[in-house]
Specification:
By secondary structure, the protein is an alpha+beta fold. The chain is built from 7 helices and 14 strands. The strands form 3 sheets. A 6-stranded mixed β-sheet has the order 3-4-2-1-14-13. A 6-stranded mixed β-sheet has the order 5-6-7-8-12-9. A two-stranded antiparallel ribbon has the order 10-11. It starts with a strand and ends with a strand.
C-alpha cells in the first residue's frame, strides 16, 4: 500500500495548481491532506467525489482555517473526527480511520508561534494525541501517523538550527516531546531509511527559500515498532509543487 500525506495550504488553491491530476497520476491507496481550509461544500466536487476513492473530511468550525481530508481506495470500518475533546476537535485537525491491520491518524498539529497560549495549546494537543495512540497500541493495534507536526525534530531537519532554537517549531520543549514520542515506540519512517541532510518538506514562501532549499522537515509518517517489518519505503517528494509544503509518503506491505 502506498500512503501519501501533504499539507496543501488550501485545497482549492492546490486544486487550481493541479492537485487532482497529480493525485490521479500517483494513485496512492491512501492520500491524507492537511490545512484544506474549506468546509465540505467548498471542496471542489471532482475532489469531494474523487473516482475510485472514499472521501472523508473534517473541517474547522472557523472558515478558511485548518481542516483535514482522507482519500482512501478501501473503505475503513471505522472513521472518527478528533479525540472527543471540544477545544481540539473544533479546529478540525484530526481524522482517524481504522482497518483490520492498522489505525491511521491524519493530523494537522497546531502551530505554537503566535503566543504562549497557542504554544501551551500545541503541547497539550501533543500530550492528548500521545495518550490516545498509546491506549490503542496497548490494545495490540498497529498505528500509522501522518501529517504536519509543526516541529523539526533534530538539527538535521532544518537548515539553520542554531538560529531557530528560540522559535516555536524548534524549541527544546517541542523537540523533547518528539523524543518522548519516539521513546514510546514510534519510528520516524523517513529517518529509518535516510540519514542524509537537506531533506525538507516545508519552505518559507516569503523569502523564496525553496529555490535555495532552505527548509524544515516538519511533515512525517510514524509507525509503531511492531509495524516496522512491513515498512518497505519512505520518501519525500521535494519536486512536487502546489504548496509551501511538499508531499511525503511510505509504502507498507500489509
Amino acid at each position: 500500500m502506498k500512503f501519501i500525506s501533504w499539507n496543501v495550504n488550501g485545497i482549492r488553491a492546490a486544486d487550481r495548481k493541479g492537485l487532482f491530476n497529480w493525485s490521479k497520476k500517483e494513485s496512492p491507496d491512501i492520500l491524507c491532506l492537511q490545512e484544506i481550509k474549506a468546509l465540505p461544500e467548498q471542496v471542489p466536487p471532482h475532489l469531494r467525489n474523487a473516482p475510485g476513492y472514499h472521501v472523508f473530511l473534517n473541517s474547522a468550525e472557523r472558515k478558511g482555517y485548518s481542516g483535514v481530508a482522507i482519500f482512501t481506495k478501501e473503505r475503513p470500518f471505522e472513521i472518527k473526527k478528533g479525540f472527543g475533546i471540544e477545544k481540539f476537535d473544533k479546529e478540525g485537525r484530526v481524522l482517524i480511520i481504522e482497518y483490520p491491520s492498522f489505525v491511521l491518524f491524519n493530523i494537522y498539529f497546531p502551530n505554537g508561534k503566535k503566543n504562549d497560549e497557542r504554544l501551551d495549546y500545541k503541547l497539550n494537543f501533543y500530550d492528548t494525541f500521545l495518550g490516545y495512540i498509546d491506549n490503542l497500541k496497548a490494545e495490540g493495534k498497529n498505528i500509522v501517523v501522518c501529517g504536519d507536526f509543526n516541529t523539526a525534530h533534530k538539527e538535521i531537519d532544518l537548515t539553520h538550527p542554531k538560529a531557530n532554537e528560540g522559535r516555536s517549531g524548534f524549541l527544546p520543549i517541542e523537540r523533547a516531546w518528539m523524543d518522548t514520542f519516539v521513546d514510546h515506540g514510534y519510528v520516524d519512517t523517513f529517518r529509518h531509511f535516510n540519514k542524509e541532510p537537506n531533506q525538507y518538506s516545508w519552505w518559507d514562501l516569503k523569502t523564496r527559500s525553496r529555490e535555495r532549499n532552505v527548509g524544515w522537515r516538519i511533515d512525517y509518517f510514524f509507525v509503531n515498532k511492531e509495524l516496522l517489518p512491513h515498512l518497505k519505503k519512505a520518501f519525500i517528494m521535494q519536486d512536487v509543487m502546489g504548496s509551501d509544503h511538499c508531499p511525503v509518503g511510505i509504502e507498507i506491505e500489509i
